[in-house]
């Protein structure tokens, strides 16, 4: 796999964009070799869903869009960030039994910690914020080489990344 892969999408702050953000992220992970049924895919799917929901619900119309960024560095760390233009940082709310919402950041923190990752909230230069997670990435087992690619060659994915061919054990 390549040393550095990136994917990004900007979506309107609309409830329908939450599903679009999930679909986009799962698609990017699949292009990078992570199967849709992998535990990490499920974890990232839930985290992006919570972050996108927060970007839509808690910006009070002051952020017309939000951006989802994915970065995979050296097959070691996966970073996922959701940026909006609202300046207020997420607040930790008491999770009362009858409370219907307010648990998103608790879920994100727990999932991130469970995977051995980190959660950060940073201001942007433009006055908004980015809520990001960083998770360890274990490269998935290599699939068989695509048709027409022999051992020792690399194939370029439709997104322009490199796909390392499977190398049989000696």
From TrEMBL:
Residues 131-170 are annotated as: Disordered. Residues 11-132 form the Histidine kinase/HSP90-like ATPase domain. Signal peptide: none annotated. The keyword Transferase applies. GO terms for molecular function: protein serine/threonine kinase activity; sigma factor antagonist activity. GO terms for biological process: negative regulation of DNA-templated transcription. It comes from the Bacteria. Gene3D superfamilies: Histidine kinase-like ATPase, C-terminal domain. Keywords: Kinase, Serine/threonine-protein kinase, Transferase. InterPro entries: Anti-sigma-factor_SerPK, HATPase_C_sf, HATPase_dom. This is Histidine kinase/HSP90-like ATPase domain-containing protein.
């Amino acid at each position: 796999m390549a040393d550095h892969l990136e994917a990004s999408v900007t979506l309107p702050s609309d409830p329908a964009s939450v599903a679009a953000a999930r679909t986009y992220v799962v698609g990017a992970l699949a292009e990078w070799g992570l199967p849709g049924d992998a535990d990490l895919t499920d974890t990232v799917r839930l985290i992006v869903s919570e972050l996108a929901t927060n970007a839509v619900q808690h910006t009070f119309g002051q952020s017309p869009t939000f951006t989802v960024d994915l970065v995979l560095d050296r097959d070691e760390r996966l970073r996922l960030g959701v940026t909006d233009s609202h300046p207020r940082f997420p607040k930790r709310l008491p999770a009362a039994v009858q409370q219907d919402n307010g648990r998103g950041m608790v879920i994100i923190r727990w999932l991130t910690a469970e995977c051995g990752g980190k959660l950060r909230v940073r201001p942007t230069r433009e006055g908004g914020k980015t809520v990001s997670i960083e998770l360890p990435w274990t490269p998935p087992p290599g699939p068989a080489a695509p048709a027409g690619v022999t051992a020792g060659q690399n194939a370029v994915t439709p997104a322009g990344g490199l796909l390392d061919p499977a190398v049989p054990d000696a």
